[in-house]
Amino acid sequence: MAPVIEPHQYTLKKTVSCCGVGLHTGRTVNLTIHPAPANVGIRFFRSDLKEKPVIPARMDRVVDTRLATTIGSGATRISTTEHLLAALRGSGIDNADIEIDSHEVPIMDGSADPFVHLLRQGGRRKQRALRKVLRITSPITYSEGDKSIRIEPYDGFKITGRIAFEGELLREQKYSVEVTRERFMKEIARARTFGYVEQVEHLWANGLALGGTLENVIAIHWDRRSILNEDGLRYDDEFVRHKVLDLIGDLALLGTPVFGHVIADRSGHGLHLGLMQTIAERPECWEYVKFRKNGNTVLRQVVKETRRAGDRIKPFFTPQQPGSAAQPVCAA
Predict the structure, then answer these.
(1) Mean pLDDT over residues 72-94, rounded?
(2) CA–CA separation, 116 vs 119, rounded Å?
(3) Is there a catalytic annotation at residue 269?
(4) Given this model, what pLDDT does residue 305 score?
(5) Of these residues, 24, 242, 261, 269, which one is catalytic?
């Protein structure tokens, strides 16, 4: 049975704004999300800089994966992108222009939920342009030491995550979910970022995490059996759900929805990027499914992307431009 997916692209109905603090700088950040034309994807604009330089949210723009996912263009940076990108992908928004007056996306409450509420205020507007979906046809694996991430063929978008840390509280957690808009908002969006108390203290001592508080980070006690947050956990397995949230946000940098089952074992931002780069290097393991109109009916069509030698890591997960070399192979 064909996966259920909305064939059209979506943007916001109206502009929405919020204000928060940067996790590492502790400074106030103003963020505004505008509706955007079809086929442009997600774009960040640094409103605090002259000429408002733009950084497309694409895998080829990732410049750092330590602590968070940072994208950049030249000397311009946008860090901690994953929660906002997860909210956009989880809410079914394909095209948006984001103005931000800092190099950090505000941390809000440490989850994607405040951004989801913001996007609900903006509403969704269906666009005439049709989507294309990256469908995995053969398994692809990327690993670093004892950590690994794998994506397999699957008729939909599913994530299975596993984490294992020291201490009783985080010894092992597993979570598997069919990612839909409804399940994202109910089961994933509210999961917050977390860390050990001594890790946060180390970051403070090095001039980082200056905006980190118990309002936006789950602080794990020194005894590894409890947390310092008085309101407790939002889910019994909130830690692994947050890892799934991060993964959804990072995979949004592919620039298109995905059909596949992602199996992540103790993965993080670096492994997520490694998987995306490996996908780019293995065109024989995936295909695009494009939607097309046939009268009043929307059909699916499989296409293969052809690229020149040397273009193996180019940002080919961007919307197809007129005159590109993609050619129909068969009807789905």
Answers:
(1) 97
(2) 5
(3) yes
(4) 57
(5) 269
